[in-house]
Structures are given as C-alpha cells and as structure tokens.
C-alpha cells in the first residue's frame, strides 16, 4: 500500500528543489552585481555626466532618460490598457471574435522586444515623423507593455465576484457606476500587479529604445519630448561592448543603479497595492 506521507515528502522535496533552482541563481546574480557595483557608488557617479569617452564621470543623463521613458510608457499604456480590459471584461460578448482578440493579446506579450523596436521605428520614427525622440521611445515601450497590462487588468476585473455587480445594479446604479465605484476599486490590486510587471519590462529593455530614442552619448538633458536621451539599458550595453577599457566597477555600478531603480519603482507600486488590498472585504 502506498504511503501518502512518503508521497507528500517527495512532492515537497521536488517543490523545494524547483524553488531553489530559481531563487539561488537570481540571488547570486544580485549579490555579484552589488559586490562589484558598490565601489562605484558615490554622488559624482549618480549626478555627473559621462566623461573621458564614458570611461569616467557619472550616469545622470541616463538615469533621467530612463525615468522619462518609463513615465511616458506607463502614462500611455495604463489608461489604454485599463479601458481595453474594462471593455473585454464588462461589455464585450463572449463570441469567436472576442476570444480571438483575447488570444491575440496574450500572444503579443510573448513577441520579442526587437520586433517592437522595428515596429516603433517604422511607425513612429519614420511614418509619423517623430524621429528618434522620447515620444517615439515612450510610445514603443507603451505598446510593448500593453498586452501585460490588458491581460492582468482583465483577470483582476473578472476576479471580482458577480454578486457585487448584481447588488449594485439592483440598487439602481448604472453599469458604468457599478464598474467605477464597485468593480474597479476591488480590482485595483490586480491592476497594479500588471503595472508593476510593465514598469520592470519598460525600464530594462534595450532593443526598442535602440531603434527609437537612445543616444550613444549626450552631455545635456533633453529639452522636449522630441529630443533623444541616454538610457541606462542602452548605456550599459554601450560601455560593455562598444567602449574599450571601461573600468569593471562602472559597468556593474550602472547595472546596480538600473536594478535599484526598477526595485524602487516596484516597491512603491507594491506599497500602494498593499494599501488597497487591505480595504478588500472578500
């Protein structure tokens, strides 16, 4: 007779091993980046422009450029993605066309980022004539993270119990009032989860900005959304592959700043999500 406790221990061991296979390599990567990048951390490195062919100085223009691009991408993708999720979840009928659209959105989340970069180059840089600019880069990144935001927002909306909608409608509220005052507040933690995922991907991608906005070197900050900018992912690629004799601590320091920036933005979103999640009654 099979011993259920033995099976449980074997399953537990496999689950623990699988978790360690994921956590340990990631932890080692973070430790190596911190260990090799921390010596570069000082005020000059964070606030100065690159000097001596990017072999010295700081990365301030790249930090500011990354913030501009991430802010522009989220400002574009979040409203459109949320409205699309509301329509697919609350208004659209469950038919073949709707199912095809939902499947296409899920598949778009797996499209390589370089394809989005070529799309942004063809559409925004060339066709609309925006040129290589913050606007082109932000729109390209926004389109790239749209599928993630739409999918997670739709799942969050659909997770709200149907009884909430029925009670609101029975009290005389319109469908939009129900969505606005009942469904959205309860789905907000899940929507913020999609926003967190979008923030991380937009901040760390290199290929889309390579075609649409990133500059090899700019000693000054941009004056408008039609200017090019430096960005941390592309700057890290440049100093690692295109510029010889760059000190190792500068490369790892740049990677550490990018990692810290992504974690900080995610932390803010997680704190906001936690506050809204505590208000949930179910």
Task: Describe this protein's structure.
The structure is a single chain. By secondary structure, the protein is mainly alpha-helical. It has one domain: MetI-like (MetI-like fold, Orthogonal Bundle), CATH 1.10.3720.10. It has 11 helices and 2 strands, in the order H-H-E-E-H-H-H-H-H-H-H-H-H. It has helices at 4-37, 43-47, 60-91, 96-108, 113-127, 134-159, 162-170, 175-204, 207-212, 232-241, 248-278; strands spanning 50-51, 56-57. It has a two-stranded antiparallel sheet. Strand 1 and strand 2 form a beta hairpin. Helix 3 (60-91) packs parallel to helix 6 and helix 10 runs antiparallel to helix 11. The chain is globular. The mean pLDDT is 89.
User: What overall form do the CA principal axes indicate?
Assistant: globular
Number of individual domains: 1
CATH fold-level name: MetI-like fold
What is the CA–CA distance across the termini?
42 Å
The count of strands amounts to 2
Q: What would CATH call the class?
A: Mainly Alpha
Sheet/helix structural class: mainly alpha
Would you tell me the overall average pLDDT?
89
Largest sheet strand order: 1-2
Proportion of residues in β-strands: under 5%
CATH hierarchy: architecture: Orthogonal Bundle
Q: What's the CATH H-level superfamily name?
A: MetI-like
Task: Describe what is shown at a glance.
The chain is mainly alpha-helical and 282 residues long. The chain is built from 11 helices and 2 strands; from the N terminus they run ααββααααααααα. 37% of the residues are buried.
Map the helices and strands.
Elements: H1 4-37, H2 43-47, E1 50-51, E2 56-57, H3 60-91, H4 96-108, H5 113-127, H6 134-159, H7 162-170, H8 175-204, H9 207-212, H10 232-241, H11 248-278
Antiparallel strand pairs: 1-2
Helix pairs in contact: 1-11, 3-6, 3-8, 4-6, 5-6, 6-8, 7-8, 8-11, 10-11
